[in-house]
Every structure is written in C-alpha cells, then in structure tokens.
Amino acid sequence: MAVSVQPSTSVQKYLADSPKKILIGGEWVDANSGKVMDVTNPATNEVLTQVARADETDADRVVQAAASAFENPEWRWMSASERGHLLYKMAELVAERAADIAEAETLNVGKPIFQSEDDVETVVDCFRYYAGATRLLEGATPAVPTDFFSYTLHEPIGVCVGIVPWNFPFQITAWKVAPALAAGNTVILKPASRTPLSALMLGQIGLDAGLPPGVLNVITGPGAVVGEALASHPLVGKISLTGETSTGTKIMKIAADGIKRISLELGGKSPSVVFADADLDQAVTASLTAIYFNAGQMCAARSRILVQEEIHDQFVSEMAARAHKLRLGNPLDREVHMGPMISQSHVETVRRYVEIGVSEGATLVAGGGQPDDPSLGSGNFYLPTIFDNVRNDMCIAREEIFGPVAAIIPFKTEEEGIRLANETSYGLAATIWTSNVKRAHRVARQIRAGGVWVNTNMTLFNETPFGGYKTSGMGRELGIESLMSYTEAKHVGVFLGETVRGFKI
C-alpha cells in the first residue's frame, strides 16, 4: 500500500480551483497556446494539478506588461514609504495563509511539513525586512570642489526576472521578489516547472495586497523555453537566477548580448571541517541536518565532511548509527525527518553517483539505495547515505550530487583541512567545528566561500548576504547587498560657480 498523502480541505480546493493561467499585467490569463502541464507529488508521483505551459510569445507578453508597469507613474514615482507599506501588507497576507502555503509546498516539493513551515515563516520576515529597507536607499554627497554640488541616487533598474529553483521555491521566490520590489523595480517570476504552486500563490498575494497591475507577474513553463526567452528579451534589465552552475553559465552568455545585470546563486560542494577538539555530539547532529535536510537537495548542503584523524572513527560510527534512525515517509507526517526526492530521474542520478563512489574505492557505511518499505515504493525516496575513506579527487567529492549522500574525508593537520576544504571549483558555504576560538577565526578567513559558519549548522538571516565564490555564483541574495543589486547608481553634479568651464572661443 502506497503512502497516503492527503491534502487538507482548503488545499484540496485550491488544487481543484487553482488557475491554470499565468499572471500578466494584473490579470490571470491563459497561455497563448492553451497548453497546460502536470504538477506532481514526489511522494506518490500522482498529479496534484495542472498549470499553464507558457512559451516565447507569453514571455514577450509578460515583459511588455512589466515594462509598461515600470513606466506607470503610480509605481515609478511611488514613495519609498508607500512601497514599504505594500511589502508589509504582502508579509501579513503570507502570514495569514501560511498553513495552506506550507502544505502546498510540501505536497509539491516533498520536503517535510516542518521544513515548509519554517520556509514560510522566513518569507514573512523577508517581506517585513525589505518593507523597512525601502527607506534605506540613501545616496551620498561626495566632497567635490566647492564650485560643484554633487549627490548620488540609487534608482531601480527596471524589469527584473527572478528564475527560481525547485528545492526552496517559496523561500527563494521571496529572496528575489522582495528586494526587487523594495528598490522600485517590476518583477517577472519564473518558478521551476516542477514546483510552481507557491509562486502562483504569491502572485495572488501581490494582487490582494494592492500592487499596481504588472508590478509582479508570474509565468510558468519550461525553463529552456520561457527562461531563455525572458533572459534574452531586450526590455529586461536584470536576471536573478538560482540554479545549477551549467544553467548559470548559459544565462551569463545570454545576458551578455544586452549587457544585462545578473545575480547568480549556483551550485556547491560545501565542506564541514571537524577538528578533534569539536563537540562531537553537536557536530554529528548538525552534520546530519546539513546533508539530509530536504533530502540533500540543497546547493549549500555540507556534502563533504572533513574529519580530523583523532576522532574520525568515532565520528563515522556515530553518524552512521544516527543516519540509520532517520525516518523516511509521508512528508505531511510531523515525525518524518526526510521526504522524497523531487523526481525518479533525480533518484537515478543519485544511484549512479553511489555506484561511482563504490567503484572509486570509497567505503559505503550507510544507505546506498532506496528503502525496502513497500509503502514508499511509488515515491522518489532514497536512504540517507554515507561514504567513508573518500579522497578529494574522487567524483563523489568533486561533483554536486544534490542528494542525501555524505562523503567523509579524513585529514591530519589544520593546514591540510583548509587545503582540502578549498580544493574545489565551488565556494558557496562551509562550517568549522572547533572549541578553539582563535582557530575558528583563523580558519574562517582562509576558507574560500561566501558564507562560513562556526559550531552551527547553516542559518540564514534576511539581514545577512548569501552567495558564492568561484563557480558558486556572483552577487548576493538577502541583506542590504541584495537590495542595492537591484539599483543603478546615478551621480548628479550641479555647477555652483559663475563661469562654466569649456572651450574659450
């Protein structure tokens, strides 16, 4: 008997009545082709609902609407405080609808319900944060010669496209929409084809909050068609993508033709560096969460765990024992630690990597296959997996698996631990485990990553920037850094002298 994943009455109604449409210019409209695509539940692979399957012509329609909305004085010259009020209203509406949004997210993504609830809570705070940040777009008055008065302005870019991945769709949607709106831009939201539900919900929230028509638009459809059409459109000013590094490379090439502004948050092969003086119990607990949260489908998952030799055997034994105790199952069950992966094809990808790891000589100490429980057979479940005796040159240590597979790599000295941590083409995140405060700060400075955490699992705050070094991307999400990335800096120089400078003719 397959696992039973029954939506609540309100979410069932939403799935039945949800518009198989796209949001363009303040109106829910059909795709030009009239085509739709299925949205499935990864815990059962059953169809949840259908959404519009847009194409290039729809992409042009939505850009035209967003460009027109940007020039609308009602939005273009709206005061910062008024924009903040609208964002705050959106936060309140998200809070009011939190239960339904979280449930829809779990049904669509497969992550356990407590994780979806946490995501929604952070989204509420994200909109509240940027509601206040609208008033922080301040310029400066540089110290120029006294016959000039100069000042700077931070102005919106224009039409901004947010391309969102399937692993944290609602949370990352907010990371792009909130700062872009706070800066005065208009936004086109392109959710991942597999997980469009929460983005569509946010589109309705924008309408209900009172955003002028066309300020927030949502378009669903294949990324290779719609995403590329949006990225190449001449009226688009900025593209913000969270996704695979290969996709980021493609978007960079497309954006180059129009010299578009881009922000890219891409892949990772992030390390945890566990020193012998670490609190072993906490390091194991957090390491489990850092790789198995959302079934390992995180760009910042700590998939490489570097453990100092003195505690290596004990760490591996304890982590394997706890991994065996993690509960897989119905993601709406609050006792479940791990839900399914996003698709059966992704399960096959993880399976291939596990086979490669075994063939490379790594030691499989936990997992390595799908669960035996027949009730999980129709879903995309995969066991928490641990490899020991991994070398940094192995495929499973170099390539992003994006699944519940941990690679444990022993090291001897602090210098070796730092070298191994940095020996990757990625640079998104890292964790350091040590009781030596000097070592913590010393190592944090030497690790090449956009975010480093000490003695804790990764915790993101809306006030702090998040992004990567190297092939993990460019630009930053969250914080004031993200807000400023949605603006253009303008200098205005006013001549105060009597005689203008120029040719004497």
How would a crystallographer describe the biggest sheet?
7 strands, mixed
Estimate the mean pLDDT confidence. Answer: 96
Rg (CA only): 24 Å
Unreliable segments of 5+ consecutive residues = none
- Tally of separate domains: 2
Biggest sheet, strands in spatial order?
13-14-15-12-11-17-18
Classify the helix fraction into a percent range.
Answer: 40-55%
Ends apart, CA distance between termini: 93 Å
Classify the fold: give the CATH topology of the largest domain: Aldehyde Dehydrogenase, Chain A, domain 1
Strand content: 15-25%
Q: How many helix segments?
A: 17
- How many strand units? 21
> What is the general shape?
globular
The first-level CATH class name of the largest domain:
Alpha Beta
Alpha-beta classification: alpha/beta
Instruction: Quickly give the CATH architecture of the largest domain.
Output: 3-Layer(aba) Sandwich
The CATH homology group name of the largest domain = Aldehyde Dehydrogenase, Chain A, domain 1
Describe the protein's architecture and organization.
The chain is of the alpha/beta class and 505 residues long. The chain folds into two domains: 14-266 and 472-490, Aldehyde Dehydrogenase, Chain A, domain 1 (3-Layer(aba) Sandwich), CATH 3.40.605.10; 271-454, Aldehyde Dehydrogenase, Chain A, domain 2 (3-Layer(aba) Sandwich). It contains 17 helices and 21 strands. The strands form six sheets. Strands 13-14-15-12-11-17-18 form a seven-stranded mixed beta sheet, sandwiched between helices. Strands 8-7-6-9-10-20 form a six-stranded mixed beta sheet, sandwiched between helices. The chain has a two-stranded antiparallel sheet with strand order 1-2. Strand 9, helix 10 (245-256) and strand 10 (261-265) form a beta-alpha-beta unit. The longest helix is centred in the N-terminal third of the chain and has 21 residues, at 113-133. The N and C termini lie far apart (93 Å). The model has no long low-confidence stretch (mean pLDDT 96).
